[in-house]
């Protein structure tokens, strides 16, 4: 038989890298629209007590009541522009990179990634996304915490573009990456835990005793457990990141010298468990955000594969 009569097997249709990054950003932005109030409460609680050690809020509910009472209900969505920009940069980068690395791994090794493989890919994806998203993160922290400051000390950013412009003009462009070390460190821990544990929990639920079918129920269960594990491991670094990004100069010197200084001072002045201050709103924000992000991402991927590429089944993350 001649070579011209031999037909090559058609290559499997796969989503382009641009689509993977686009879906990562869209899923994160959709989830943020739902959980932004909880992110604001988490930030306010983490900043409360900075310097003095005095608690401003008795609980998450008290924090919400205080914000609504003093600033109005719309204040719960303060900084939404910066939050969406953060998702458009950070989540686009991390989820797009993780999906890309996952697909590359399966193609090259012809098997699903193991726990160490997933952790390594999550760490790389988190570092890349965090560095890209740090400017939006700085703007978000400042905009969500502004309302708790005395009127004379407020920065009064009108929107995320105004925040980024003023920070650059007043403090220099490097201020946009203030706290980048704890931000990248936190992102590496978060993504190593979140993305790897989500993949592993999903594999366990599908192939373990429960034999769960691919679908929203499976994505929900894997996401909630992944969110809990991520909250426990990442909160101390998240508090350090928040306080460094929100700090002001005192007598020409920065309030904190670095991540270790924040962690030591919080533990010394407010107690070790203060490193997990705001655990409830953090998990209530991260849990649903993880669930919504992964469900939206899985549905976008499945819809694209089915209706655009004509592929009925997808392995997902």
TrEMBL record:
Family listed: Belongs to the mitochondrial carrier (TC 2.A.29) family.
Lineage start: Eukaryota, Metazoa, Ecdysozoa, Arthropoda, Hexapoda
GO molecular function, one term: antiporter activity
Reaction catalysis annotation: maleate(in) + 2-oxoglutarate(out) = maleate(out) + 2-oxoglutarate(in); oxaloacetate(in) + 2-oxoglutarate(out) = oxaloacetate(out) + 2-oxoglutarate(in); (S)-malate(in) + 2-oxoglutarate(out) = (S)-malate(out) + 2-oxoglutarate(in); succinate(in) + 2-oxoglutarate(out) = succinate(out) + 2-oxoglutarate(in)
Solcar repeat feature ranges: 19-104, 113-204, 214-303
GO terms under cellular component: membrane
TM helices/strands, residue ranges: none
PROSITE patterns given in the database record: SOLCAR (PS50920)
A matching Pfam family: Mito_carr
Protein name per UniProt: Mitochondrial 2-oxoglutarate/malate carrier protein
A GO biological-process term: lipid transport
Cell location: Membrane
Membrane topology of the entry: Multi-pass membrane protein
Keyword Transmembrane: yes
């Amino acid at each position: 038989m001649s070579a011209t009569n031999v037909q090559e097997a058609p290559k499997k249709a796969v989503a382009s890298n641009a689509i993977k990054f686009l879906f990562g950003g869209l899923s994160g932005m959709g989830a943020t629209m739902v959980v932004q109030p909880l992110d604001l409460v988490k930030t306010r609680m983490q900043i409360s007590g900075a310097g003095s050690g005095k608690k401003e809020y008795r609980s998450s509910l008290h924090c919400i009541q205080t914000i609504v009472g003093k600033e109005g209900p719309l204040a719960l969505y303060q900084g939404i522009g910066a939050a969406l920009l953060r998702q458009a940069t950070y989540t686009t980068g991390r989820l797009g990179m993780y999906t890309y690395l996952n697909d590359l791994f399966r193609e090259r090794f012809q098997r699903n990634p193991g726990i160490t493989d997933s952790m390594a890919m999550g760490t790389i994806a988190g570092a890349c996304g965090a560095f890209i998203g740090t400017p939006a993160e700085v703007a978000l922290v400042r905009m969500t915490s502004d309302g708790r400051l005395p009127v004379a000390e407020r920065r009064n950013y009108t929107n995320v573009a105004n925040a980024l412009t003023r920070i650059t003009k007043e403090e220099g462009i490097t201020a946009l990456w203030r706290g980048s070390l704890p931000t990248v460190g936190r992102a590496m821990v978060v993504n190593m835990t979140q993305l790897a544990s989500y993949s592993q929990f999903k594999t366990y639920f599908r192939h373990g005793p429960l034999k769960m079918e691919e679908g929203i129920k499976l994505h929900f269960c894997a996401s909630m457990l992944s969110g809990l594990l991520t909250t426990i491991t990442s909160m101390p670094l998240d508090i350090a990141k928040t306080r460094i990004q929100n700090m002001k100069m005192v007598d020409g010197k920065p309030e904190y010298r670095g991540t270790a200084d924040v962690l030591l001072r919080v533990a010394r002045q407010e107690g070790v468990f203060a490193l997990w201050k705001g655990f409830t709103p953090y998990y209530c924000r991260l849990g649903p955000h993880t669930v919504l992000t992964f469900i939206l991402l899985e549905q976008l991927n499945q819809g694209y594969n089915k209706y655009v590429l004509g592929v009925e089944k997808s392995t997902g993350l």
